[in-house]
């Protein structure tokens, strides 16, 4: 249900399949990952104490992103720094993928709607290099 995509010793992505349903709160990312992903599980009547997040300076290298497949089916292809194809994974409705590093591309197998979350601010054409 949880798959780390490790190719040539590099952790490129993390996939959480739609069937995964934890009984308690669980984070899938490592504490030092530049983007954190977890499922927060609470029973009815429980509370999250009101809070604010402190203004903390973080240095982020790269642009990690999360895609949630709201509907559809797609093929994710992974590329190394030389832009050579090195692997692929199919994603289905409800799957979540965290992309940490490396190149990637997507082919929609069915009509697909994705939710994307990534580190900002968005820098337009400076943000990515297409190949």
Written description of the protein model:
The chain is mainly β and 131 residues long. The protein has a domain at 1-20 and 63-120: Jelly Rolls (Sandwich). The chain has no helices and 10 strands. The chain has a 5-stranded antiparallel β-sheet with strand order 1-2-8-5-10, with no helix packed on it. The protein is globular, with a radius of gyration of 16 Å. The mean pLDDT is 93.
Short description:
The protein has a domain at 1-20 and 63-120: Jelly Rolls, CATH 2.60.120.
How are the secondary structure elements laid out?
Blueprint: E1 2-7, E2 10-16, E3 26-27, E4 38-39, E5 65-71, E6 73-79, E7 85-92, E8 96-99, E9 103-108, E10 113-118
Antiparallel strand pairs: 1-2, 2-8, 3-4, 5-8, 5-10, 6-7, 6-9
CATH fold-level label of the domain at 1-20 and 63-120: Jelly Rolls
Q: Taking strands numbered 1, 2, ... along the chain, how are they ordered across the largest sheet? A: 1-2-8-5-10
- Unreliable residue runs: none
Cα-atom Rg, whole angstroms?
16 Å
Strand content: 35-45%
Number of helices: 0
Largest sheet: 5 strands, antiparallel
